[in-house]
Amino acid sequence: MRHPLDTLDWPISTERLLLRRAAPDDLDATWAFRQLPETHEWVAAATETYDDYRERFLRKERLVDLLIVELDGRVIGDLTLKVQDGWAQEEVADQAKSVQGELGWTLDPSYGGKGYATEAVRALIDISFKSLGLRRLHADCFYDNEPSWRLMERVGMRREQHTVRDSLHRTKGWLDGLSYALLAEEWPAHE
């Protein structure tokens, strides 16, 4: 089955950025910022060595939902969109197939504070709702990862859940977690 991102015409340009599908050749560029302490601390699956990262990055299931963010031809970050089924009762489960998405992002910290992450995530939200026809998007993070949840708020996502010490961090132990979401019908108000 084709991934919904395969149906789009890539690359997609924003005001300053270019979004495109990830390719094996993006391995080194993404490793350069993903192995930095300030990003490595928060990514869901951190790899300690380049060889481990290469093995993980090149998995087909990893590349299928990964997008690259470029600025003037330089890779400055990546985005993920995992298209998912919505929860549904059995009788209507077929109507909940591939209707929502989970968003993720990692930006090279040297490009932080310039609005690039906000611009890229807004573009991904727009693609998700307008081009792919998804009905709902969500994203999760540790409460301690303030830049991530601040980004969710900047793009118009709503905080739906603040959980208490339910999220296990690899070095910090049990931390609070946050969940944010946005519905397609809410999106035009944030453009």
Please characterize this protein's 3D structure.
With 191 residues, the chain is of the alpha+beta class. It has one domain: 3-Layer(aba) Sandwich (Aminopeptidase), CATH 3.40.630. The chain has six helices and eight strands. Strands 1-2-3-4-5-6-8-7 form an eight-stranded mixed beta sheet, with helices on both faces. The radius of gyration is 16 Å and the shape is globular. The relative contact order is 0.14. InterPro entries: Acyl_CoA_acyltransferase (IPR016181), GNAT_dom (IPR000182), N-acetyltransferase (IPR051531). It comes from Nonomuraea aridisoli. Keywords: Transferase. This is N-acetyltransferase.
Topology:
Blueprint lengths: L11 E2 L4 E4 L5 H8 L2 H4 L9 H8 L2 H4 L2 E6 L2 E11 L15 E8 L8 H16 L4 E7 L3 H9 L3 E12 L3 E11 L8
Q: How much is the average pLDDT? A: 94
Q: Which fold name fills CATH's third level, the topology?
A: Aminopeptidase
Which quaternary structure do these chains form? single chain
Q: Number of helical runs?
A: 6
The stretches of 5 or more residues where confidence is low (pLDDT under 50) are: none
CATH class: Alpha Beta
Give the total of domains. Answer: 1
Neighbour order of strands in the largest sheet: 1-2-3-4-5-6-8-7
Strand content: 25-35%
Q: Main beta sheet, described?
A: 8 strands, mixed
Helix content: 25-40%
Shape: globular
Cα-based radius of gyration, to the nearest Å? 16 Å
Which architecture name does CATH use? 3-Layer(aba) Sandwich
The computed structural class is alpha+beta
User: Count of DSSP E strands?
Assistant: 8
**CATH homologous superfamily label:** Gcn5-related N-acetyltransferase (GNAT)
- Give the H and E element order: EEHHHHEEEHEHEE
Termini separation (Å)? 32 Å
GO molecular function: acyltransferase activity, transferring groups other than amino-acyl groups
Protein name: N-acetyltransferase
Domain N-acetyltransferase: 17-185
Keywords: Transferase
